[in-house]
Design goal:
Blueprint: E1 9-11, E2 18-20, E3 24-26, E4 33-35, H1 36-40, H2 47-53, H3 59-68
Antiparallel strand pairs: 1-2, 3-4
Amino acid sequence: MIELKEHDTMLCRACGREERASEGYPCGECGTFVCLMCTMRGVTLCEPCSAKHAPPGAAATAKGATKAGAGGGSGGAGGAAPASGAPTGAPPGATPSA
């Protein structure tokens, strides 16, 4: 008897992970598979469609930021603290007030 081996996974066109086909949604523009995790993060377009809608100079920057900030890193809430002790958003050269 032949043993059937089902393969019910698809590649997410936004992040590249292989996920179950039932745990995802179609791209809002072209209909390709976008996984549930990307959808929960607010990603509704696949990578090629989001590149079409990005401003001309932001395509390379956004791709690098997406890959680097997609859940990795060893920071607390949003990245590393400034090394100088200056509060985030303070102008360069500002000293802490405490």
